[in-house]
Amino acid sequence: MTLTQLQKAELLLSLHVPGEPLIVTNVWDAITAKVVADTPDVKALATASHSISNVRGLQDGEGLSLDEAIIAATIIAGAVDLPVSADFEKGYAPDALGVTRNVRRLIEESGIVGINIEDSVGAEKTPQFDIETAAARVAAARVGADQSGIPLVINARVDTLAGGGAWDEAVARANAYLGAGADVIFFLGLTDENKVARAIEQVNGKISVIGAPGLVPLKRLAELGISRVSFGPGTLALTLAALQAAAANLTALGDYPTDLGFKFAL
């Protein structure tokens, strides 16, 4: 059954359950979206701006133009019938009014039902917008969603710990963004169980994190009460590593990899 955009947005929000985290395997084009969407038990998708930019030969950090970002999101959302959340970087605007305008465009033109929005000023994790400005930008994204009539799921990113900042500021930012209209806090820098547990205790809402080797295992994240796990550009790295290994094997006249026969189609 094909879902409407409104139904997809409502479904995406309902999938964020503390202790039963939504696992979103990040994708970057139509075929990766379809392959992941066709995988059993996958319930929603998320894009990764880093991957979308890099496969086009561009740097992350709004290396794409606004139009290019919306086109990429449209292609991905149009390839599947699952809810799709887009990494919308900083909203592709220098001010809150621009964030409102651009978020509304993204929703209305692409079919996207969720976004990540960052609180850092440039391509790095530091400096960040001051808390009031960053919260106002989250609020502006909510206004854009309200204008569109779609209850966009806003995953507001807190870069403080990843940028070397203080714990108390990170928590203050998280709660400010929730108060401004975010549905989930994308809390970077929760690198061990203690930090995850502290964040869940001190943040007044749902938390999403990055999963990667060396960080807290997925099952333990679920036990601790995380609501969402994504992998950012890690899924592109995984794909490229497999491709490079296969290229080395084939160049060395090795056996044909079994996955060379993987069947796919749009």
UniProtKB/TrEMBL annotation:
What molecular functions are annotated in GO for this chain? lyase activity
What the entry lists under InterPro entries is as follows: ICL/PEPM, Pyrv/PenolPyrv_kinase-like_dom, Pyrv_kinase-like_dom_sf
Q: Does the keyword Lyase apply?
A: yes
Q: What are the entry keywords?
A: Lyase, Pyruvate
Xref: PANTHER family? CARBOXYPHOSPHONOENOLPYRUVATE PHOSPHONOMUTASE-LIKE PROTEIN (AFU_ORTHOLOGUE AFUA_5G07230), PHOSPHOENOLPYRUVATE CARBOXYLASE
> Under what name is this protein listed?
Isocitrate lyase/phosphoenolpyruvate mutase family protein
The organism that produces this protein has a lineage beginning with: Bacteria, Bacillati, Actinomycetota, Actinomycetes, Micrococcales
